């Protein structure tokens, strides 16, 4: 009994300590819960972007298949054909180039070079002012309905945050500026065709604004505007624009081709795909949703060329 008597107080003491420990643990848990409710906790949500009022930030958007379904140069060619700037066989060529662009999902260098050469030969001898005026009409006829709503919302988010938004494209700068103006964007960087006394010579100034040239244009504009590229965003569908996307702190792959999608996933870049309505991988600006229907521009152009033969 002595032994049992010796154990009994020990058990009671252990029980008391257990109760005390339990009460202390419960109190700590309650206190922690209250603090959690009172103090914002970090989570997996991205910080607000774009940052409102950040005047050192801007956004740079590729045009073809990023902002607009298809290639601007092709739509421009359709408009010039309608105005009898060239013949049916040239339209068929434009249609084939556009079909390749849309079906393959990549920019074939030879096709792009052919398209540029064709466009330069077509506008040679015409006045710059004439092409600018026609560009306004062509935008209404062939381009306005082909703007991706989702990408347009992304651009608007930057504008609403007080930031400048620029198109950066290999398309002729005159056409790019028309599109930028119609969308309410700040401006456009594009390929510059040589002109003398306001008349196109059929040559380029330098080279097309494509691939690395886009990155150089963005770098130069950022320096002139006093921008901090680490706070800027860039958007494109093409792996050819990886140099431009790599310049900024917020790169987005929009409707990406296979190579860009792979690269973006490896780099943990944000992805959006408006061709099917699905949101791919990491999503950036929450408010910028939207689905763009696939345009039938290529089929229409091919059908038209067949009827004209």
Number of helices: 11
- Percent of residues in helices comes to 40-55%
The end-to-end distance, rounded to whole angstroms, is 116 Å
Overall form? elongated
How are the strands ordered across the major sheet?
3-2-1-6-7-8
Structural class: alpha/beta
Largest sheet: 6 strands, parallel
Overall strand count:
8
**Mean pLDDT rating:** 76
The radius of gyration computed from the alpha-carbon positions, rounded to a whole number of angstroms, is: 29 Å
Question: Could you characterize what this model shows?
Answer:
- The chain is an alpha/beta fold and 309 residues long.
- It has eleven helices and eight strands.
- It has a six-stranded parallel beta sheet, sandwiched between helices. A two-stranded antiparallel sheet has the order 4-5.
- Mean pLDDT is 76; it is low at 1-12, 36-44 and 277-309.
Write the layout of secondary structure elements.
Blueprint: H1 2-38, E1 58-61, H2 72-82, H3 88-104, H4 109-123, H5 128-143, H6 149-160, E2 164-172, H7 173-182, E3 187-191, E4 193-196, E5 199-204, H8 212-225, E6 233-236, H9 242-247, E7 250-254, H10 258-267, E8 270-272, H11 297-308
Parallel strand pairs: 1-2, 1-6, 2-3, 6-7, 7-8
Antiparallel strand pairs: 4-5
Produce a short descriptive summary.
The chain has 309 residues and is α/β, with parallel strands linked by helices. The protein is 52% helix and 13% strand. The strands form two sheets. The chain has a six-stranded parallel beta sheet, sandwiched between helices.
Annotation keywords:
309 residues; alpha/beta; 6-stranded parallel sheet; two-stranded antiparallel ribbon; 11 helices; 52% helix; disordered C terminus
């Amino acid at each position: 009994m002595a032994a049992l008597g010796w154990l009994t107080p020990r058990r009671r003491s252990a029980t008391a300590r257990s109760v005390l420990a339990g009460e202390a643990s419960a109190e700590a848990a309650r206190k922690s819960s209250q603090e959690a409710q009172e103090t914002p906790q970090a989570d997996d949500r991205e910080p607000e972007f774009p940052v409102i009022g950040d005047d050192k930030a801007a956004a740079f958007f590729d045009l073809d298949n990023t902002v607009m379904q298809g290639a601007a140069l092709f739509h421009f060619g359709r408009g010039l054909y309608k105005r009898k700037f060239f013949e049916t066989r040239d339209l068929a060529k434009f249609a084939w180039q556009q079909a390749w662009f849309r079906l393959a999902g990549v920019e074939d260098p030879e096709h792009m070079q052919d398209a540029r050469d064709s466009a330069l030969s077509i506008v040679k001898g015409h006045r710059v002012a004439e092409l600018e005026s026609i560009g306004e009409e062509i935008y209404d006829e062939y381009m306005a309905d082909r703007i991706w709503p989702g990408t347009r919302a992304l651009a608007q988010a930057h504008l609403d945050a007080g930031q400048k938004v620029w198109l950066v494209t290999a398309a002729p700068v005159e056409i790019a500026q028309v599109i930028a103006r119609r969308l309410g964007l700040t401006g456009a960087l594009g390929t510059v065709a040589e002109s003398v006394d306001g008349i196109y010579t059929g040559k380029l100034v330098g080279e097309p604004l494509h691939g690395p040239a886009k990155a150089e244009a963005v770098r130069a504009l950022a320096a002139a505007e006093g921008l901090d590229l680490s706070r800027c965003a860039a958007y494109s569908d093409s792996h050819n624009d990886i140099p431009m996307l790599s310049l900024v702190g917020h790169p987005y792959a929009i409707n990406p081709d296979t190579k860009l999608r792979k690269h973006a996933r490896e780099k943990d870049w944000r992805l959006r795909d408006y061709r099917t309505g699905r949101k791919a991988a990491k999503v950036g600006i929450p408010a910028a949703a939207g689905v763009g229907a696939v345009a039938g521009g290529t089929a229409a152009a091919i059908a038209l060329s067949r009827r004209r033969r």
